[in-house]
Each structure stands twice: as structure tokens, then as C-alpha cells.
């Protein structure tokens, strides 16, 4: 049986590429956290050079000729010599490297460099435009990025829609055709559920969440929960940024960010738990495979399942707050002294149509995604002109959520994604929501007394289970295969819907 | 006349190399400021890959063949075709690129990568060893780095001593032969001056500098002085690190660091002013030449002249504190309310032999350097074994300063430099001291009412003068040529000695 050791000439090269990519990630992290405003233009160029180099090295003739010995270009699978088979890790590694290589090979290096530069710049302009509520300011950059991404889809090739080419970059195997029925099923059940909730006589008081909560105490509590989750601060950090995110340079250096709003307790709290879920995935990747696909996360949907599992299935559960609420109450005695645990639980699960995706409840969240999924398809397919975006956005908000953003800052400008060219990224958030419930229910079956553990603040056996089932495998299995291995089923809206109907049925006495 | 535009194929390549080097600098900055402890090993590898790439690209056949059209390899000077001469910037650019290229060409890329990795690792071990006061812990890494640096000197080639090869990397043109007389002259005048000071009946009370000074207020005052100096926070930041330093990724992103010790007011204060002087140089480099030697600082000695000019000639002058002391007093009313401006001035100019170089007064500082200069020569020449360092260090401390460090942390382990292979770096500090007085005296002659300006907190015309005379030129002139252009003279200990004798003669009533 041939092992990964036989692939050493390839893995050495991949390691170098990974280090260049990791360096670019450090530069991006710095850009979002500490970089002075004036440094943006130079930073865009530095990142572009690194990404260009990584790309050139990946599509080099050395890697091509190594791969051509080992991979059948027709099937993208490892070639077995009779009597001399590849073991499973090698087989997966070759399949995934081939996937990366053949996608990258279709893009000219100059294009990759120019795309990187334009995306860094557009992201910086977006920050300003959002601050100033000026879609017009952002429009020229959006146009540029969009035309690059449409060009990218042409280079990559696709069936049915150019959007599929981009989607596949974030969620291998996903297509419009596989996602549309998922969203249709969600819509069919969530819209009536939402209607029943808004008509319910139950009134949830969440006003106390908008009291004044001290900046440092919010951060400290976030840090406490991260620590309890098993996020390792010896191999990570918590910083502030305009949008919370997680980035990894190596399993020994995985960083999360959050933001703190004085009059919005949930924003720091749940973003810490959310990013912590991402962080645990990246800290749990197998170091020995660093640089290869086996040391990399499998897809954005699976990544998001980790953050949403912690944020929602754990962090918005009664069980979790049984342990943590008394601590939170102690931290914010003046603000929460007269709020019961049950009152807090219902407040952080209050469902109401709102403007901002990242602050949405579990239920309306998917409607936010649906809207973006439809809009970005149309943008990439050229059915929508960028200048019409604010109007289309607002119309769809009205249609799906019944509310219209008073400003573009709270509307079409709210998310960073399109600014850096991440078209096809949004649907992975909903996939993450669906997977999160599937995985959590499996964990509840397999981990003895998990609920009791969570209720006493012991979160590490859950982390260990996720590590065993998901983190340590990297890209050994495709997302669908991984889901089947863990739950016996591919992505499935049913568990999420049942979970939501049960949870909110109970809260709202439906 | 041929201009730099004719060198475009070369400058494009240099720009790419600079961006890679700048990326490596971001990674190093992060390593010293925010990186979690666990990330060190991976970071060393990432930086090594980037430095290896930058090296490979510099010594590439493309650059070699471009240079061979334009530069005479015998003289290292631009080749002029009759009737088609290069302009001065092009001539300087070619001379300096040739210098960098021919130094780099002598080093194998594998050697550069391995050296970078070992230096990053040794630096991290040094941090721990210093904390734990364990020279033994650091010794294996020191041995490795030292043997690499000795090998580097062999690759580079040299006359007289391998140390000269390393020295030339930091201070082009400097050799042991040029430096020894400078140090001899300093020693001949400073040692007797020091003796007269220690025998003086003047007693300076500086005990109040060790009172408790709040962390945030120290930092705020540092920031205030930096702003007054003209350091641009839109293109820079102030952070904390174990050792203060300045690093630049581009003139639009130049970062300084400091440290804050509650019971040591001068450490944050003067390190901010010092690093600010470095920062102004890097922010003042000409952006249009970024990536070429004309957009780079000329030498460490000249760089240090900028930091020492601000720290000492400005920051330790009576004139400066005429404006800033009332503000400082207001900031620290409880601690400084009963200390007069004159009392503060003499306290921050108190001369006494001390253990730590970076905290030394202007006078004994050069004795600290002399000791390092001698030790590192012997190390590189193989006359001293690394294991004997603590003993040699302590003996020389006794000899030059009359005191012996009680621990290696306060002795041979105090400086970071040797850990990252910076042998030949220390003498540039003394060159900086000498240049700083030469330049400042010239500024006093050329800027009308400079003293009045400083006395009223107006520091920008000094910054502008330094920008005009030094910063904007990059490496257009050699350090010696630059010094002659500005002051009419090369580096010269006399002005510094006269300044020191006058200043301390007055303070100590000699």
C-alpha cells in the first residue's frame, strides 16, 4: 500500500504554497484589525503579490508533472497500479490537490493578481461607503469586482449557470439545482412558521439586552466562554474588527475577532461563540497534514456548521445558560439582576424580522440568505445591473421579511462579502445551519449525558466529538460524504425545520 | 540623459521583491506584538519561505542579465554610453541594486532560508532564556546562529576580518579599521569625562522617575509627543513589544513600538521619541521610489542618527522640556507636582554607569557599544567561544563601566540582536550618536529660530529639514557622501564629544 510518504515531492511544494498563503492571511488579518488607514493601497499590492506567487507555484509545471503521474485527468482520481494501491489518505489527498490544481490552472496568474488587488481595494472602499451610507461610492468598485468574478466563472467553466462555477469554489459539489429545492423547502415551512410567531400572543421582552454593557466586561465574558469551549489562547487570539471573522495561519495560530456594542449585549457574546466554533475547527485540523488538503477545512458549509452549532444549538439553548447565566448575571449585575434565566433565554431567541443578517434570529436568518442567493445569481448571470441593487434589495426585504431598510448601510451595504468578490459564499451559511442541527442531534445521541455536561459548563467532550468526527479529517471526505459518515444522510432541511418548529413552538406557545 | 524610466524592467521586479520583503516584515511585526506563543514555529517557517523567495528573485537570471547590460561588474558603477548618460538617480539606483545583488548572489538560497528560520527560532528561545535568566538555554541556538553568520561571512568574502563582511551589510563602507580609531577617540575622552562626573559633588535626584506612573497615561503622553514630532498616525501605529522597534512596510504604513514600565517613566517616554525618529525617516522616504534603493533608508548608522537626534539632542534638551514639561506635569500631577523643570531636565540627563544599554545615558551608552563591538568581532573571528560569553561580558562591564551584572538577564542576555544574527549591528548605534550631533548642529545653523520653535513645541520644521536633507534621498548617496553633503564632513566624534563635554560640564559643574 502506497502512503503519503510517496508523495513527498508534491507535499513539499504544497507546504511552501501553504506558507505563502498563510502569510497572505496574516496580512489580511492585520488589514482588518490593526493596519493604519493609509496603508491600504500598499497592502492590497502586497497581498496580491503573495497570492500571485502561490497561484504560480500551484500551477507550475513541476506540480503538473507530478500530478500527471498519479492522477487520471478524466476522473480526477488517483491511478492505482495493479498490486500497488494508494491508501485512503493518499487517494483523498490526490483527488483534492487535483481539484485545486485544475481549478487554479484555468486562471491566468495575472488575472489572479489583478483580482486579488481589486478585491482588497474594493473591500477598503466598502468600509468607507458603508460608514457614509453611500452605495454610489462603492458602485465603481463593485462593478469591477463583479466583472472580474464573471470573467473568473468563464475561465473556470460551468454547466447551467456561471454562478455554479463560483459556488463550487466554496462548497464542492453544490449547484443551483441542488440548493434551490433546499431553499424551497425552507421557505415553504419557515414563512408560515414566522407568520404564526408574529401572530402569537406571546410577547418577549428583550429590551434589557440594549442596556449599557461595559466594553471590557463584554470582552471578558466572551473570552470566558471561548475558554470553556476549549478554544486555546496559546494558539489563538481574540481581537476587534468591523466584522467578526476567524482566520488561521496554522493550527497553532488561529485567530478570532469580535465587535463590542455597548447597547447590544448579544452582538459580542454570540459572535465570540460563533467565531469560537470556527476557531475550534481550525485549531483541530491535523498539524501533520498542514499544507495539504488533509490539513485544510472541507468546505464553508461544514465550517459554518461548526460556528452555528456552537452559537445556536449550544449557545441559544436553555441548557447552556443554566450554567453560564449566573456568571453573566454576576458580571452585569446592574443590568441583569432582575432578569430571570428563562427571560434571558427567550430574549436571545426572540424572533422578529430585522434588517441585519448577522443579528438575525435562527429562523429569519435563512430568509436573509435566500434573498442574497437570488440576487447574486442574477448579478453573476447578468440579469441584474449593479446600479439597481439597492432597489432590488429593498424590494426583496419587503417581500421576505416585511421590512425595508431605511438606509443602504443597513441594507445592501451591510455585508462585506461582495466587496471582496465572495459571490457564491452566502448559501453556505444556510448549509451550515442545516448541518449544525444534523450534527448536534447526532452528538446528542452519541455522547452520554451531553445535555448534563452542557448544563454544568463542561463543553469539552462536545469539542472532542466534533474533533473526532469532523476537524481531524480535513478534506479526506467530500462534504456530502462526511455528512453521510456522521449522520447517515446528506444535507437535509428536515432536522433543522423540526428543531425550529419545536423550539419556537414552545417559546411562542404555538 | 537616460532616466529611471529606462530601468522599468528592473524596477518592476524590484517592486515585487520589496512587496515580498514587506510581507515578511508584517509577519515579524506580528511575531513581536500579537502572535500567540504557540505560533512561533510555523511563523519561523513562513518568514523563511518569504525571505527565500525574495532572495531567489533578487539573484534570478532575469535581474542578472538586466544588470549586466547597465552595470560594470568591476567597478559596480553604471555604464555610460558616449552621448547617452544616465541621470544621477539612475546611476545611484544601479550602483545600489548592484551592491544588493552581488551580496545576495554570493549566498545560496537554501542558506538564506535556513538562516532565516534559525534566526526566528533563536529569537524566540532568547525571549524565554532572558525571562528565565538562563544563558545555557540560549547557548545551543546562539551556537547555530553564530556558525551560520560565520559561514555567511565566508560566502560574502572580506578583507582583514570576516566581521567586516557583516558590518558592511548594516553600514556600507564601515570596517573595523575605520571604526577602531573612532572608538579609541571616544574612549580617550569619555572615560576621563565619566570619571570627573562620578567624582563631581553635584548630586542629581532622579528617584521621582521611579514613582508609579499609570500605564495608559504614559502611552498617551508618548502618543502626544509622537504627534508633535509629526509622526503620522494615519500611516502608522504605536504598539507594545518586549523591545521597542520600528518597522516599515511602505511609507504609508510605518509602525513603532514601545514598552511601559510602571516604575520607570523614562523607558516609555524616550523609547517613543527614539522610535518616532526612526518612524519619521521611514514615513519620509519617497513613495515613488518604493521598491528601489532610492526608496530605502541608506544605512543603520544614518537611521540611528534620526532616532538619537530626536531622543537626545531634542528630547533630552532643556529647550524641549520648556514646552512639554508642563504638560507632563499636568498628566502626572501627583508624581511630578513638586519637581521643577530643571530638576526633571537634570534627572533625565543623570549620568551613571548602569547595566542596560537601552537605558544608559548618552555618555556611557557608547561604552556599552564598545564592549559589544569587541565581543562580536572575537565571536565572528572565532577568538571567543560562545560558552565563555557571560564571563567575558561581565569582565568587560567591570572594566569599562565599573559594574558587574548580577544576572545574565541584565548582562549578556539583555539584547535581542545576536539571537537573530545581527552581528555587526551594534557599532551603527555609536555612528548614529555621532551623526546625530553633527546633523543637529547643522540644523541649528540652517533653520532660523529652531531653538525658539522647539521651546514652543513646534517640531515640524526640524522634521521637514531632516526630510529634505536625509529622508527623501533614500540611498541616493552613500552614508559618507550624505554626511559630507549635509555637514561638509564624514562621521566625526568631535562634535559629539564637544556637545557631551559642554552639556555634562554644565550639569555637573565640572
Structure at a glance:
The structure is a homodimer of 510-residue chains. Chain A has 510 residues and is mainly alpha-helical. The first copy, chain A, has 21 helices and five strands.
Question: Would you kindly provide a written description of the structure presented here, covering whatever features stand out?
Answer:
2 copies of one chain form a homodimer. Chain A has 510 residues and is mainly alpha-helical. Chain A has 2 domains: 4-157, no CATH class; 176-507, Neurolysin, domain 3. Chain A is 62% helix and 4% strand. Chain A is built from 21 helices and 5 strands. In chain A, helix 1 (8-33) packs antiparallel against helix 2 and helix 10 packs across helix 11. Chain A is globular and about 70 Å long. Chain A starts with 7 loop residues before the first helix and ends with a helix. The mean pLDDT of chain A is 96. Chains A and B meet through helix 1, helix 2 and strand 3 of A and helix 1, helix 2 and strand 3 of B.
Task: Record the SSE blueprint.
2 copies of one chain form a homodimer.
Chain A: H1 8-33, H2 40-58, H3 61-70, E1 71-72, E2 77-78, H4 88-105, H5 109-131, H6 135-156, H7 162-170, H8 176-199, H9 215-229, E3 236-240, E4 246-250, E5 253-258, H10 265-283, H11 300-314, H12 318-331, H13 333-336, H14 341-347, H15 365-380, H16 389-401, H17 427-446, H18 450-455, H19 460-469, H20 479-487, H21 493-507
Parallel strand pairs in A: 3-5
Antiparallel strand pairs in A: 1-2, 4-5
Mean pLDDT score of chain A: 96
Largest interface: A-B, 38 and 37 residues
Reported CATH architecture of the largest domain in chain A: Orthogonal Bundle
Which bin fits the share of residues in helices of chain A? Answer: 55-70%
Give the neighbour order of strands across the main sheet of chain A.
3-5-4
Specify the overall morphology of chain A. Answer: globular
Oligomer: homodimer
Amino- and carboxy-terminal Cα gap of chain A = 59 Å
- Calculate Rg of chain A over CA atoms: 23 Å
Main beta-sheet strand count, sense and barrel state of chain A: 3 strands, mixed
Low-confidence stretches of chain A: none
Count of individual helical segments of chain A: 21
Please report which band the strand proportion of chain A falls in: under 5%, 5-15%, 15-25%, 25-35%, 35-45% or over 45%: under 5%
Amino acid at each position: 500500500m502506497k502512503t503519503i510518504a510517496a508523495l513527498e515531492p508534491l507535499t513539499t511544494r504544497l507546504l511552501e504554497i501553504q506558507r505563502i498563503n498563510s502569510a497572505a492571511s496574516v496580512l489580511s488579518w492585520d488589514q482588518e484589525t490593526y493596519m493604519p488607514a493609509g496603508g491600504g493601497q500598499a497592502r492590497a499590492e502586497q497581498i496580491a503579490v503573495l497570492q500571485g506567487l502561490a497561484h504560480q507555484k500551484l500551477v507550475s509545471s513541476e506540480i503538473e508533472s507530478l500530478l500527471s503521474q498519479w492522477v487520471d485527468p478524466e476522473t480526477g482520481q488517483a491511478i492505482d497500479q495493479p498490486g500497488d494501491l494508494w491508501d485512503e489518505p493518499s487517494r483523498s489527498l490526490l483527488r483534492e490537490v487535483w481539484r485545486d490544481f485544475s481549478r487554479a490552472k484555468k486562471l491566468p496568474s495575472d488575472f489572479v493578481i489583478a483580482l486579488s488587488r481589486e478585491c482588497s481595494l474594493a473591500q477598503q472602499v466598502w468600509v468607507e461607503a458603508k460608514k457614509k451610507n453611500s452605495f454610489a461610492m462603492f458602485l465603481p468598485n463593485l462593478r469591477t469586482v463583479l466583472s472580474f468574478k464573471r470573467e473568473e466563472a468563464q475561465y473556470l467553466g460551468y454547466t447551467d449557470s456561471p454562478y455554479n462555477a463560483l459556488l463550487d469554489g466554496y462548497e464542492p459539489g453544490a449547484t443551483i439545482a441542488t440548493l434551490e429545492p433546499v431553499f424551497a423547502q425552507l421557505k415553504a415551512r419557515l414563512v408560515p412558521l414566522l407568520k404564526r410567531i408574529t401572530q402569537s400572543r406571546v410577547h418577549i421582552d428583550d429590551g434589557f439586552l440594549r442596556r449599557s454593557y461595559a466594553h471590557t466586561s463584554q470582552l471578558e465574558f466572551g473570552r470566558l466562554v471561548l475558554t470553556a469551549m476549549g478554544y486555546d489562547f496559546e494558539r489563538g487570539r481574540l481581537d476587534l474588527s468591523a466584522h467578526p471573522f476567524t482566520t488561521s495561519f496554522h493550527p497553532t495560530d488561529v485567530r478570532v475577532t469580535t465587535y463590542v456594542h455597548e447597547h447590544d449585549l448579544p452582538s459580542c457574546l454570540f459572535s465570540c461563540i460563533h467565531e469560537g466554533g470556527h476557531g475550534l475547527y481550525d485549531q483541530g485540523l491535523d498539524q501533520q497534514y498542514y499544507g495539504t488538503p488533509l490539513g485544510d477545512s472541507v468546505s464553508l458549509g461544514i465550517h459554518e456548521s461548526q460556528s452555528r452549532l456552537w452559537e445556536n444549538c449550544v449557545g441559544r439553548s436553555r441548557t447552556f445558560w443554566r450554567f453560564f447565566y449566573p456568571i453573566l448575571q454576576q458580571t452585569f449585575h446592574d443590568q441583569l439582576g432582575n432578569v430571570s434565566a428563562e427571560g434571558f433565554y427567550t430574549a436571545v431567541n426572540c424572533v422578529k424580522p430585522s434588517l441585519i443578517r448577522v443579528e438575525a434570529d435562527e429562523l429569519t436568518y435563512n430568509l436573509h440568505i435566500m434573498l442574497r442567493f437570488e440576487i447574486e445569481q442574477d448579478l453573476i448571470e447578468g440579469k441584474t445591473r449593479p446600479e439597481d441593487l439597492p432597489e432590488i434589495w429593498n424590494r426583496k426585504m419587503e417581500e421576505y421579511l416585511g421590512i425595508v431598510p431605511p438606509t443602504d448601510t443597513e441594507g445592501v451595504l451591510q455585508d462585506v462579502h461582495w466587496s471582496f468578490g465572495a459571490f457564491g459564499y452566502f448559501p453556505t451559511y444556510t448549509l451550515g445551519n442545516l448541518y449544525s442541527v444534523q450534527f448536534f442531534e447526532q452528538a446528542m445521541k452519541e455522547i452520554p449525558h451531553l445535555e448534563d455536561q452542557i448544563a454544568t459548563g463542561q463543553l469539552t467532550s462536545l469539542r472532542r466529538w466534533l474533533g473526532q468526527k469532523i476537524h481531524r479529517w480535513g478534506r479526506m471526505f467530500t462534504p456530502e460524504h462526511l455528512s453521510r459518515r456522521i449522520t447517515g444522510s446528506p444535507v437535509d432541511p428536515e432536522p433543522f425545520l423540526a428543531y425550529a418548529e419545536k423550539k419556537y413552538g414552545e417559546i411562542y406557545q404555538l
